[in-house]
Please model this.
Amino acid sequence: MRLSIDDFGTGYSSLSYLRRFPINTLKIDKSFVLNMREDDEACAIVRTIVALARSLQMEVVAEGLETAEQLEQLRSIVCDAAQGYFFAKPMPASQSLEFLAQGRPLQQARSASAGHVSKS
Model:
């Protein structure tokens, strides 16, 4: 079993949970990710959460990824994974297998790292 703390940095995601439970993954709340480009404090918080996760041998996932610029920022700070509308909007499980088989999320991320975003 693997445990994650969702929306880390907001609400009930207390630092004490990191000691009390065998947490594997921190999921950075989208409110920080969405504002990284315009808000130096949000960017500093994301960097700090990534550093904290690394020092505790945890994985880190950034929630709310919407742009190629955000993806590049997350890559520059070596964030393990990201999720958000940049890759796809929520969909039923029946559609997700077909969507993944097409390789679209991976193609989109690769295109973004090359400096442009695929519109497909």
Q: What stands out?
A: The CA atoms of residues 37 and 70 lie 7 Å apart. Confidence is low (pLDDT under 50) at residues 113-120.
